[in-house]
């Protein structure tokens, strides 16, 4: 069986990575693994991993020869899926913001082009019950959808999660007792597809360091669509980890999250750590760029603020944030994290390899 993996335009990451690692751990020997990659992300692949450049003719040949294709986003390549090939689309997040055919703004022709990829999908994963309707509606997908939880989040509930946290923090140079804040702003369509820079950072990084001091470090993680936008960033107390291979490392290493409309909030909630929402452009994002499937004011399990200084106020009082939002956080987790029990990868693999070992586990809840 030949499996071709694709994650975020050539990275070793996300749900495909977790499925690959789980297959290796299960010791299934009749599988040939091949990853689509790019030179910019080659550092993230383990030694000995077979790869092919996503921009080369070999990538199309590999896809057309695959028995199983596993991708976490659109494969924007011109290839013909042969009979007998299964295309598993894991997607990459609980959709708070509207996606694909539901967006309010998109460059001309982009969605029509991506629809050619959707037409190849055989199975679609949903991380929770609440996401199934938005995902199927946005993609106009009529095939089977499986609520499995996300394989990438299994690591957050794994027995070695604390050990991994300690190791990752040491690798990143985060001193013991330092509060690590993971900042995960999403991208803006009009920036990426407009005439200006791909991304504009709204949070005042210098003020973060000045206000919170050496006891805090900011772990900056940009969306994969704009991950290179701030290359060369050099601010004391700030680490640009947009190219770090595995975001679950950062979820474990962090003590709190600052985000806006990013789906990272739903994954991070598995950890139970506090979340602060910096939503300085909420009205524009809701009414002009994207729109939402869920009203942030109704579901957000943390404070929603519009000024950079208000973000710092919340980070300076994380105990207060935990206390004030405890009930909302519990409701958020019940709605969006109910399938995240640490066994999603096995459930997914049993869908595509039912004879591959291990008993199928029903999604909890």
Topology:
Layout: E1 2-6, H1 14-26, E2 32-37, E3 51-53, H2 57-65, E4 68-71, E5 86-89, H3 110-118, E6 123-126, H4 129-139, E7 145-147, H5 161-172, E8 179-184, H6 189-192, H7 205-212, E9 216-220, E10 238-240, H8 247-253, E11 256-259, H9 264-268, E12 275-278, H10 282-289, H11 296-299, E13 304-305, H12 308-315, H13 318-324, H14 326-336, H15 344-352
Parallel strand pairs: 1-2, 1-4, 2-3, 4-5, 5-6, 6-7, 8-9, 8-11, 9-10, 11-12, 12-13
Helix pairs in contact: 1-15, 5-8
Keywords:
365 residues; alpha/beta; Rossmann fold; 2 domains; 7-stranded parallel β-sheet; 6-stranded parallel β-sheet; 13 strands
Question: How is this structure best described in words?
Answer:
The chain has 15 helices and 13 strands. Helix content is 34%, strand content 15%. The chain folds into two domains: 161 residues, 3-Layer(aba) Sandwich (Rossmann fold), CATH 3.40.50; 177 residues, Rossmann fold (3-Layer(aba) Sandwich). With 365 residues, it is an alpha/beta fold. The strands form two sheets. Strands 3-2-1-4-5-6-7 form a seven-stranded parallel beta sheet, with helices on both faces. It has a six-stranded parallel beta sheet with strand order 10-9-8-11-12-13, with helices on both faces. About 2% of the residues have low confidence.
Order of helices and strands: EHEEHEEHEHEHEHHEEHEHEHHEHHHH
Largest sheet: 7 strands, parallel
Fraction of residues in β-strands: 5-15%
Kindly state the mean pLDDT as a whole number? 93
- By CATH, the superfamily of the largest domain comes out as CDP-glycerol glycerophosphotransferase, C-terminal domain
- CATH class (first level) name of the largest domain: Alpha Beta
Largest sheet: spatial strand order: 3-2-1-4-5-6-7
Rg value: 20 Å
Identify low-pLDDT runs: 355-362
Q: Tally of extended strands?
A: 13
Counting DSSP H or I runs of 4 or more residues, the number of helices is: 15
**Number of individual domains:** 2
Class based on secondary structure composition and strand pairing:
alpha/beta
CATH architecture of the largest domain: 3-Layer(aba) Sandwich
Shape: globular
Helix content: 25-40%
Any idea of the CATH topology of the largest domain? Rossmann fold
Distance between the termini: 33 Å
